[in-house]
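Final report, closing paragraph on structural work. Over the funding period we assembled a curated collection of sequence-structure pairs, and we close with a single example.
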Amino acid sequence: MTRKTIKSGCGQVDDGGSMSVAAIVRHYGLKYGQKAQDELGRFRQHRNMPSLRDAIGTAAQSRDSEGLRHKHQRRLKERDIANATKLLVDSAERIQECSNFHALLRHVDDILAETPGVGELYKYDVSLRIGAWLGHMPERVYLHAGTRIGAAALGLDTSDGMLEMSALPPELQRLPACEVEDILCIYKGRFRKR
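Its predicted structure, as stored:
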């Protein structure tokens, strides 16, 4: 039997069938965990981003430390990212007022509500990077297209657009919410039914 590799905006996993949640958590830790931590660490450390405006611009441009476009945003048009970046940087004072990740995500969503070409995944990813700079990390798992599929595969209620950590399987509850978001997206086709 040959295994296929499934590519998605969240990453790629071979199509070898379903996996237990515990196996998925282990695999994620080995293959993706450090890279995800490094990306957020780049914002937490404030290196090369001494001001909030710098952090917002870097987050909104959606480029990694090597200057490459993040996988989630690889299909976005340069002009749409430029428009979103300008709107977000111009709203730095409003963003500074956010006291937690939920408020930050709502502000970013409001700021970009009329901006064509950027969707819920872009808004979440940009908010996550800015939130790392501000020290506001998600306490819930926010659902977008990929994570919604992964959550549904686990039999979770996705109607609210977010999940409380307590609603997740115990193996996922031990992780930061942003890593659970990543796992639900990357492994959306691999979860073994509970």
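Residues 19-41+139-186 form one domain. The chain has two domains: 19-41+139-186, 49-61+70-134. We thank the funder for supporting this effort.
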